[in-house]
């Protein structure tokens, strides 16, 4: 992408992400590990109430959900519940910002990453390489793919230092529709 294309792309994404109050989407997650012949595939639904609450509701192959709400992370693993207080824990706060920013596409206004941009016939891609040592331990690169004509992320790829990765594809996205507050209750 040329410098002018990058600036327009960033401006459009940041501007559009500020207009997103809620987002729901179906997702398919592929976990690719070098020692497995096939990826582990999970499916579910994402609910985002920008910027404070998010729920990953996995429905296949197991019932599992993770809720980020009011400074806490709540996990329900087939009925086994746990929680982590994020407030005051810099690593978890950064993780929460990273996840919300990845989904909304609003990661460009940060000094925590070296960001490069590219494009194909069908998409614009932002590649974010972390600068912080704590993040580099877990993430080598984040790739955000925006299909042409869309201002929300369609694909997130989190590449680990080992080159194993998690790829999440979002479909059936719906913006700024009412989400029942109970969705974000643990």
TrEMBL record:
The protein's name is Cell envelope biogenesis protein LolA
Native source organism of the sequence: Empedobacter brevis NBRC 14943 = ATCC 43319
> Which InterPro entries does the entry mention?
LolA/LolB/LppX, OM_lipoprot_carrier_LolA-like
Q: Which UniProt keywords apply?
A: Signal
Q: Which taxonomic lineage is given here?
A: Bacteria, Pseudomonadati, Bacteroidota, Flavobacteriia, Flavobacteriales
Gene3D superfamilies, alphabetically?
A: Lipoprotein localisation LolA/LolB/LppX
């Amino acid at each position: 992408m040329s410098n002018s294309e990058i600036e327009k792309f960033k401006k459009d994404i940041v501007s559009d992400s500020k207009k997103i109050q809620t987002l729901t989407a179906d997702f398919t997650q592929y976990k690719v590990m070098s020692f497995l012949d096939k990826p582990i595939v999970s499916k579910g639904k994402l609910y985002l109430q920008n910027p404070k609450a998010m729920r990953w509701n996995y429905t296949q192959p197991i019932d599992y959900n993770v809720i980020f709400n009011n400074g806490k992370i709540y996990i329900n693993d087939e009925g086994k519940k746990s929680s982590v207080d994020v407030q005051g824990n810099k690593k978890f706060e950064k993780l929460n910002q990273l996840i919300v920013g990845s989904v909304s596409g609003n990661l460009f206004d940060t000094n925590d990453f070296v960001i490069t941009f590219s494009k194909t016939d069908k998409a614009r891609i932002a590649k974010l390489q972390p600068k912080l040592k704590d993040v580099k331990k877990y993430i080598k690169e984040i790739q955000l793919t925006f299909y042409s004509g869309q201002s929300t992320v369609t694909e997130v790829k989190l590449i680990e230092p080992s080159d194993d990765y998690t790829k999440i594809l979002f479909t059936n996205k719906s913006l700024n529709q009412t989400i029942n507050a109970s969705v974000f209750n643990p």
